[in-house]
């Protein structure tokens, strides 16, 4: 397959057409992800964070004052994602749109824009991977895969879609580096930005940086690539550090968010790579020694100044929060848990990356991989390994799998065109089918329907869980005077975005005090719950009857307050608001 791919303008046009089709499908169906947020707590809290910024909260202040115990807690997210959303809302405000219409426009425009850009990037990477015209399979596979990932649906404004776009762009640009001089610099910039947005992408950023360094060691011609990547990575990290961290906090290290720790690692490794690429002698031994010295220097700096960040990211988490929250967060589940409890999710997230890895393995049996193929294969394999630890890694492995799958389909199509036969035609159809996530999802649904079981834990069956994610579900609560609401963590973000109340619990690992207070209240006996409610000045209790979180709390603490409310056994100090009886969210007033 030596035919060159299509031009970038053609790929951009195809990506635009695919994006408009998806936008049309969402519009015709009434934007269902905006009508019902479901369990998308992150998108709801992101909107709250943008509202706070537009309402006058400091750029450097990431406190969420309306969630948690008194004083709230500091979120670990980045203003880099808040900014474009705020700008879109401000633009529509300036045009005379209402606040609600402006927010709705931002919730549609931003994820759809990211959708189109990600399709374009994956198409360009697929063309580079195959060194052939694979535009048609690439656009179909990328559009379908990203659609079923859901992270680009209207209303999804958290940060996972931004991270996938930037990581895929960094890979593509590193593949392009030998033929386009600015590509390496831009690749480093994308890698630095995705790290600044969230630490979930740290493994992929590390792999991209290591690849740039290894390429330099193996080939002196990659000197320019290494220098450009290093400068871009360190330069953007320095800019983000100054722009998003207040000077008073420059010395504070946060292991779960961009801070002095991430900045120091990026600056040392990035500038170190650039300097080594510029000054190291042209011998392979000298290049290897310089890269080993850089690796030792960065590792020593981390161990000396930031030893706390070497431990597991959840090492210090309270055991009760680990048990009753983290253990049931879908994106944090390991492969074996997903395979047993959510076969549909397992089929949609793991099968196509596994097939793509097999294809690369078969290719290795016949020939040596080219530079571009090697880079994509390494990142795909790393993403797949991460997904075995936590399902969130599958977001990246599904996207990277598009590259070898597109090349595979295009190769079969060329053979079928050159020598038509029913076997090749059948093989082409089968290649298309097994490369689509929808196929495997359908197989899993059919299999699951034969042995369907009821959900027993939080998020154990998201398709059948009651989430209370519709704006109308919170209408009665919003009409009541502002107070602190006791509710399960899965209702926390909805309470903030749809009402003027504050709430104790929310599905965020930094909200330790609020989540523990919620567990103490809901799992404790009514008298113990009353003590927590008085201490935290709770005025209302909200129950989403049928929500799997409340069900699991009631099952684990049958004598607790949550179990009593689910049974209809109210303590004397609680009164049900009769207007909410039987509604998705029932409200209890504290006497």
Automatic annotation (TrEMBL):
The keyword Cytoplasm does not apply. Keywords: Membrane, Transmembrane, Transmembrane helix. The chain crosses the membrane at residues 108-125, 131-152, 201-218, 230-248, 260-281, 288-306, 345-362, 374-391, 397-414, 426-447. This is GtrA family protein.
């Amino acid at each position: 397959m030596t035919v060159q791919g299509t031009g970038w303008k053609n790929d951009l046009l195809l990506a635009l057409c695919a994006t408009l089709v998806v936008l049309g499908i969402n519009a015709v169906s009434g934007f269902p992800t905006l009508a019902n947020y479901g369990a998308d707590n992150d998108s709801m809290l992101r909107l709250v964070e943008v509202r706070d910024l537009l309402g006058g909260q400091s750029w450097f202040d990431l406190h969420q004052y309306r969630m948690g115990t008194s004083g709230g807690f500091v979120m670990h997210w980045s203003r880099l994602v808040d900014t474009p959303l705020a700008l879109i809302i401000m633009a529509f405000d300036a045009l005379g749109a209402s606040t609600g219409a402006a927010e709705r426009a931002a919730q549609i425009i931003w994820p759809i824009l990211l959708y189109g850009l990600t399709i374009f990037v994956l198409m360009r990477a697929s063309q580079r991977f195959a060194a052939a015209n694979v535009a048609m399979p690439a656009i179909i596979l990328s559009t379908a895969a990203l659609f079923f990932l859901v992270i680009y649906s209207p209303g999804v404004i958290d940060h996972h879609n931004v991270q996938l776009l930037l990581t895929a762009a960094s890979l593509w640009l590193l593949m392009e580096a030998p033929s386009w001089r600015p590509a390496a610099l831009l690749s480093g910039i994308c890698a630095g930005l995705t790290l600044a947005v969230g630490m979930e992408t740290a493994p992929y950023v590390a792999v991209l940086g290591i690849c740039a360094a290894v390429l330099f060691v193996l080939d002196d011609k990659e000197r320019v690539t290494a220098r450009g990547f290093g400068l871009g990575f360190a330069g953007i990290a320095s800019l983000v550090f100054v722009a998003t961290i207040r000077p008073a906090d420059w010395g504070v290290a946060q292991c779960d968010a961009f801070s002095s720790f991430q900045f120091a690692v990026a600056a040392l490794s990035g500038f170190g790579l650039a300097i080594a690429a510029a000054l190291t002698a042209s011998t392979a031994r000298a290049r290897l020694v310089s890269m080993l010295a850089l690796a030792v220097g960065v590792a020593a700096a981390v161990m000396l100044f930031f030893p706390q960040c070497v431990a597991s990211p959840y090492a210090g988490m309270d055991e009760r929060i680990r048990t009753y929250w983290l253990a049931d967060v879908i994106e944090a589940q390991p492969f074996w848990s997903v395979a047993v409890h959510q076969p549909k999710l397992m089929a949609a997230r793991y099968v196509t990356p596994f097939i793509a890895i097999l294809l690369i393995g078969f290719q290795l049996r016949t020939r040596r991989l080219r530079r571009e193929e090697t880079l994509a294969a390494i990142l795909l394999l790393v993403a797949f390994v991460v997904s075995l630890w936590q399902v969130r890694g599958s977001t990246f492995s599904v996207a990277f799998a598009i590259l070898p799958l597109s090349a595979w389909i295009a190769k079969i199509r060329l053979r079928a065109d050159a020598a038509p036969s029913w076997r090749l035609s059948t093989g082409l159809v089968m290649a298309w089918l097994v490369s689509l996530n929808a196929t495997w999802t359908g197989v899993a649904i059919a299999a699951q329907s034969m042995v369907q079981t009821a959900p027993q834990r939080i998020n154990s069956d998201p398709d059948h869980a009651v989430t209370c994610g519709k704006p109308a579900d919170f209408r009665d609560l919003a009409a009541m005077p502002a107070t602190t609401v006791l509710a399960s963590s899965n209702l926390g973000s909805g309470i903030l975005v749809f009402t003027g109340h504050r709430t104790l619990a929310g599905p965020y690992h930094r909200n330790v005090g609020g989540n523990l207070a919620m567990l103490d209240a809901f799992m404790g006996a009514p008298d113990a719950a009353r003590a927590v409610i008085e201490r935290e000045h709770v005025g209302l209790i909200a129950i989403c009857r049928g929500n799997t979180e409340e069900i699991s709390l009631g099952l684990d603490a049958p004598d607790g307050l949550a179990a009593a409310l689910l049974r209809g056994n109210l303590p004397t100090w609680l009164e049900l608001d009769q207007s909410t009886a039987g509604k998705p969210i029932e409200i209890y007033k504290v006497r």
